[in-house]
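Hi Q.,

Before the meeting this afternoon, I wanted you to have the magnesium ion prediction in hand. No need to reply - just skim if you have a minute. The sequence and ligand are here:
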Amino acid sequence: MGIFSNNKQEHYDITGIELPTHIGIIMDGNGRWAKKRGLPRTAGHKAGADNFRRIARYCSDIGIKYLTVYAFSTENWSRPIEEVNALMHYFKDYLQEALDDFKDDTIALKFLGDRSRFSPELQKLMDENEEASAVHDGMVLNMAMNYGGRAELADAFRQMAAKIESGQLKAADINEQLISDYLYTKGQPDPDLIIRPSGEHRTSNFLLWQSAYAEYYIDDVLWPDYTSEHLNKALLEYSKRNRRFGGV
Ligand code: IPE
Ligand code: IPE
Ligand code: MG
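Predicted structure with the ligand bound:
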C-alpha cells in the first residue's frame, strides 16, 4: 500500500485495505460544474448521471457491498420545473438502460424514498428494476429518490403509531432496532462512509438516522468530475480512521 504519483494524476493504491461495507454518496455539484463551463444546469445533470454509472460500476468492481446514492431529495422539487423535468428524464434513461443490462449484471437495485410522487411510468420502471434485480447477489445499489431523512422518519413513526392504534404494537416495544426496521433501509447495515463532493459540509437530509456513526468525507471536486481515484483517496483515508463508536 502507498501513495505515489506520476506527472499528471495521483494514484491511490487501495490493495489490501479495509473497505467500508456501505458507502453513501451525496452526488452534489452538477449545477456548478455546468455553470463553470457556461452550460445550462441540465447539462451538469447529464454529466452527473453519466458519472453515477461509472462510479457505481467501480464500487461494484472493487467489492463494495452496499452503495447508496442521493439522487433527488424531497426538497429538490422546489427547483425550476425545467430542471426537475430534466432530472426525471435522466432517471428514466438510466432505469430503462439498467433494466436491459440486468440480464448480465449482479447489482441489486433498490429505491429509498416515497415513489408515489413520480410519474406512473417512472414508478413502473422502479418496480420492474427492483423485481428484475432482486435475485442478484452482488452489490446492493440504493438510489435515494424523493428521499428525505425526516420524511423517512415521519413515515416510520406513522406506521408504528398505526400499529399501536390497532393494538399490534406496544409503546414499550419501540427501540432503536424496531425504528431501523421501519426505515427504507430495513435489513441493511448502516453506512460506514458518507462522501460529499462539491465541498459542502452538510447532510442535506441524507440518511439522518442511519448515519449516526458514519465517517464523513468531503471532497471539493464537483460530482461530474469525481473519479475512481478520488474515491480511492477517500477509501484510503477511511481505512486509517479510528472509529470509536463512543468507546475508548
Ligand atoms: C446535485 O447537483 C444534483 C441534485 C441535487 C439533483 P446540484 O444540482 O445540487 O448542483 P449544485 O449544488 O447546484 O452545483
Ligand atoms: C443534496 O444536494 C441532494 C442531492 C445531491 C440529491 P442539494 O444540492 O439539494 O443540497 P443543498 O441544497 O446544497 O443543501
Ligand atoms: Mg447542490
